[in-house]
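Bumping my old thread because nobody answered last time. Still need a sequence for this structure:
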């Protein structure tokens, strides 16, 4: 018994029509079964080959095999396309899942401390001023009565960017920049980052935060300085705190003092944080040296003023009871999340 050779062109057209209609993986699978399944169209053609007359069988067989390969390739391509479309048009989303709580960030303890310091001084009539991190040696040293042979200017103490250009070693240059632009009265604080060549240890890091304070007017006295620092300490740490002033020397103030707060951790009885003294050193202060006023064109016969510095990191450490300054700069979230 012999059979007519199958019309392969007609079969291919039919297969292509079927393939053209599938736009989902499910329809594609149905078409695959219709074409290549056990009772599929192409499978049927292959099965019929054995019943063809021997003289046409090799040629038709070859064509039929090529057709099957083309169909298989077309199916594979279609499968790739429909799965990509599915990703775009039907994203998997389970509406019954509980919502995700957004992760809330918070301010770094140093930022929190700066905000608090700013709030307290604003309440006492101070404005917040800013200055550049990269300074000239004029603003960082000369204008602050720190001459060229002063040890603070040594290469081992200061990061120089270029000749005469450096990373500021304190926030005091902001005083000069403000006084150059403004006539008295001037009442500012200037919080910001400073840099020194320090080897990191529990109380030193090469970059740290300071706040500068400056008040210039007629008849400003040491009493005003002591009053403002004491009011600040009480506002920040509560009414029990004591403040003491010790004579010191700074090139840009005369007279100069260092000031300490009574230790909040042991309340003055002595602990490792205060090195058993009951006092924690905060920073330096003093009455602005007349040489500094001359550098900015203020008349020292008319105006007087005080300036003070404050280690923001140290205040943050006391406030949050942190015993190693390096923890503030390691950005370890396990540590920072506590504050
Ligand atoms: Zn103590």
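Sorry it took so long. Here it is:
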């Amino acid at each position: 018994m012999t059979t007519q050779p199958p019309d392969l062109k007609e079969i291919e057209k039919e297969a292509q029509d079927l393939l053209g209609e599938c736009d989902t993986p499910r329809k594609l699978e149905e078409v695959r079964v219709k074409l290549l399944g056990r009772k599929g169209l192409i499978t049927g053609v292959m099965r019929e080959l054995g019943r063809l007359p021997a003289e046409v069988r090799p040629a038709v067989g070859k064509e039929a095999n090529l057709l099957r390969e083309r169909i298989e390739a077309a199916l594979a391509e279609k499968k790739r396309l429909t799965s990509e479309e599915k990703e775009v048009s039907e994203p998997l989303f389970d509406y019954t899942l509980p919502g995700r709580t957004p992760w809330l960030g918070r301010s770094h303890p140093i930022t929190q401390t700066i905000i608090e310091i700013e709030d307290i001084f604003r309440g006492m009539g101070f404005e917040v001023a800013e200055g550049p991190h990269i300074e000239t040696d004029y603003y960082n040293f000369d204008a602050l009565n720190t001459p060229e042979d002063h040890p603070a200017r040594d290469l081992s103490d200061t990061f120089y960017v270029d000749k005469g250009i450096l990373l500021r070693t304190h926030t005091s240059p902001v005083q000069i920049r403000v006084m150059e632009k403004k006539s008295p009265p001037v009442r500012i604080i200037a919080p910001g980052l400073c840099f020194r060549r320090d080897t990191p240890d529990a109380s030193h890091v090469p970059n740290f935060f300071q706040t500068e304070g400056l008040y210039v007017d007629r008849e400003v006295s040491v009493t005003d300085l002591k009053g403002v620092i004491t009011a600040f300490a009480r506002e920040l740490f509560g009414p029990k705190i004591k403040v003491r002033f010790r004579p010191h020397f700074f090139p840009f103030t005369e007279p100069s003092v260092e000031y300490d707060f009574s230790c909040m951790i042991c309340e003055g009885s002595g602990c490792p944080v205060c090195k058993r003294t009951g006092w924690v050193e905060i920073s330096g202060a003093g009455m602005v040296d007349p040489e500094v006023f001359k550098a900015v064109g203020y008349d020292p016969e008319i105006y007087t003023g005080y300036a003070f510095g404050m280690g923001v990191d140290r205040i943050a450490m006391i406030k949050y009871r942190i015993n190693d300054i390096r923890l503030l700069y390691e950005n370890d979230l396990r540590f920072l999340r506590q504050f």
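The chain has a mean pLDDT of 87. Let me know if any region looks off to you.
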